[in-house]
Amino acid sequence: MRAAIWLLLLFAVAVAGALFAGNNQGTVTLFWPPYRVDLSLNLVVLLLVGSFFFVHAVMRALSALLDLPRQALRWRTQQKERAMHAALLESISHLLAGRYLRARKAADDVLAQEASLASSGHKPANGAQLRALAHIVAGESAHALQDRAGRDEHLKEALDQASAREAQETRDGALLRAARWALDDREPENAIRLLQDLPLGAGRRTLALRTRLRASRQAGQPMEALETARLLAKHHGFSPVAARSILRGLAIDLLNGAYDVAQLHRAWSALEPAERQMAEVAIHAAQRLTSLGGDAHVAREWLLPVWEQQAELADNLRIKLVCALEEGMDSLDATWLARIEAAQKANPRDATLQYLAGMACMKRQLWGKAQQLLTQAALSLHDAKLHRNAWRAVAELAEQREDASAAALAWKRAAGE
């Protein structure tokens, strides 16, 4: 369509020109004494138009000729910038490939080329960010080569170059890399200090939280590590299974850091309800409380949510739960005795529940029932500790009945003979 329109316009111009020039009888006379020159008006118009185009072409040619030095300088600058960017890409590629010496050399080439451009008065676009990236690559390479002095120098330069507002993301990246280097050097306090220099938004990114978690664990700060792990789990920084495992481990570390009953109560209060309901955490807390001489009634309160779901627990956790309850058996009340008996009657063939019910009856001086339950449990238990304890209890009951032969047999089985 556009070609057709241009063709019609061309024909219109041609027709207009023909109509104007075909019947134009005008002349132009030039007087140059003693001469007189008569020229056709059409010829004069053509000469004027031709002169205009000729002068325009000459001026363009002169402009292009005079602009050649500037274009040559611009071309040389572009070539240097391209070589600089190529060197940066090469340094990153060598770093990813583990060729740290070459990566460091390429990063130094980037800095040298950028300095050369700056000295000639041609600063590249985003020069500060480019220099910061080159220093980060060089610092990473120096860290891999165990050159701490060179690494720290490059880090300082990277932070100085990335101080501009437009290079904020690069500065955040430099701080995160520096924190990771500090962790590799087993300097968690330095890593935490570097992470604290991050802006609030950057400090809540997944990478920053992972680094903070690792630093807190290295520094022996279980509460800080637990709070960081909660944030990571909330923002889906871990898979659900991994998040549960990490939270469980950190909660146990927090409980292990308590060295008296008051500290243990504070640590338990610092846990979230979901963490307190984890079987491993509750059992460990109850055992820790008992070992510190705490109240057995409180320990059983902590174990109650786990007890209510004991049928769903794995065998090893059920055995740990039974051991934790057995440690406070001397102060077992009627309510807990009823719970244990109800669970044992609901699953009469469970040797672990038979053992727990038998020990509970023994502590409540229900000798006959304890003898029956413990004997049945001892014949079916697979856990070595519970098996040994069951036969030991049977032997003690036999000694109370003054049945020496039964006591001797039970002691022999408790000894594993």
What can be said about this structure in brief?
The chain is an all-alpha fold. It has 22 helices and two strands.
What features would you describe in this structure?
The protein has a domain of 83 residues: Tetratricopeptide repeat domain (Serine Threonine Protein Phosphatase 5, Tetratricopeptide repeat, Alpha Horseshoe), CATH 1.25.40.10. Helix content is 77%, strand content 3%. It is built from 22 helices and 2 strands. The longest helix has 29 residues. The model has no long low-confidence stretch (mean pLDDT 86).
Quote the beta fraction: under 5%
Low-confidence segments: none
- Largest sheet properties: 2 strands, antiparallel
Helix content bin: over 70%
CATH architecture of the domain at 335-417: Alpha Horseshoe
Shape estimate:
elongated
How many strand units? 2
Mean pLDDT: 86
Separation, N- and C-terminal Cα atoms: 106 Å
> Looking at this structure, what is the CATH superfamily of the domain at 335-417?
Tetratricopeptide repeat domain
**How are strands sequenced across the largest beta sheet?**
1-2
**CATH fold-level topology of the domain at 335-417:** Serine Threonine Protein Phosphatase 5, Tetratricopeptide repeat
In DSSP terms (H or I, runs of 4 or more residues), the helix count works out at: 22
Rg result: 44 Å
Main CATH class of the domain at 335-417? Mainly Alpha
Structural class: mainly alpha
The run of helices and strands is: HEEHHHHHHHHHHHHHHHHHHHHH
